[in-house]
Every structure is written in structure tokens, then in C-alpha cells.
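Form 7-S
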Amino acid sequence: MNSPIWSGLREETKGLLEQRDYSMSPLSQRVARSGVAASELAKLPLDADERRAIWIPGFEIFPVTTFVQRHRGTFSELARNGQGRLGEIGFWPKQWSTSLLHAGTAKGFHVHPPCIPEDIEASDWFESLYGQLASPSLHRPYDQEQWDVMYFLTGSVEILLVDERAGLPRRILRFFVQGYDRPGPDNVAIVIPPGVAHAIRTATGHDVLMVYGTSTMFDPRNEGRLFSGIEQAALPEDWRRYLGFEI
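Output:
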């Protein structure tokens, strides 16, 4: 940097200086690269052009209000059957589960197979569900494919979604969610459609406790993995050599 304000530094040091760019990039760039706060996605109006340009069809994100009880803790009402956003899309899980991610760990990528009727191409099917030709009546085969709804109770997480469905744009959403032990606008729930690869990793030095519901009961045949080696605790190279494992 040749600015006079750095004249008090050694020449070799000035040649090493960098400056961070603090300008705000468009949402379409940040959501696929550096990531955005969950609240920035949740507040986008359903009919906004900005939303349509980045959205993964079928993905849902909606706030969950956390009430702070002084000197006691917090209270959050996650969902009521048939009400709220889950009621609007006609989704209520058949199985509820919990998962604990220790600090510094991750899950995924995972993807669940979409159910495509035999007499239609996958791209045409997705167009009928989400495109301009979509039926005005809601029709999603929840009982034939796994949809996930996720809530985060503790810690902070980074979530990455990649739309891998045939005929749809390959869009990426990267965003950060706060658990309900950290009340604020980034307390949200999300719904992930089948065919959308998803990964979750802890964003701070705290454990993350999540609860999630699935539209079908667990079937290992419906769980595809993509680059999920991060879930394995790799042994040191010298240990692997000593044990006779391939390096």
C-alpha cells in the first residue's frame, strides 16, 4: 500500500498489507458464498423479486418467537398441527428426533430422493409443483418422500443447502441460525425438501442441540451422502501407517 498514512512502517511490511472490503455485496452473492443471517432470508416477502431470484423451491424458513422469562429462562412454541407455516403447506411430521452436534463438528452433506411419478419426467414434475404451471392446490407427496423440518435449541449453526433436483437451477443457500438459548431474530425453523442436499456445522465453540421432524419414518435407503467425510474423526497419518491402513 502506497498511502502516506503507512509511511511509518518498513517498506517490506507495507508490501504485505491487505485491507478488508467492507462494502455490502448483493444478497444473491452473499447467500451463495459468505452466507447471511437467517433473519435476512426469513423477512423476504413471498412475492419479492429478490426472493424469487435466489430461492430454492419448497424450502421454507420462518421465525419462531422466543419469550424471555426473567430469572428463569426462555419459552418457545415451535409449531401447532395445522397452523402456521407448516399448516399452510400441509406438512406435519410422522417422526420426531433429536441430534447433538459437539462444538467443531458437522453433519452432511445428506440428500433424500424425491418421489417422481412413473408417467412424467422429473423436470416436468417439479415444474408442476413449483413453476409457473404449478397447480393452485397444494400437492406434495409427503408420505412418499422425506421432508425435514428443523429447529435449533442451543448454540449457533451454519447451514448450507444445494438444490440438486433435475430441471431446477442449482442454487445454493448459506445462512446462520441461532438456537433458542440465544433469543433474537435469527431463531427460525426451516423446511428442507427432498432432492436438496444439506449440511450443518457448528458456528461457535458451543454444542448444538437440534430437534427435527420428518414426513416419513427413517429408512436408510432414502439417505444419500455427498462428501460427508467431515463426519469421521480421521486418525493421524502416522497412526494409520502403524496400523497398516492405506495412506
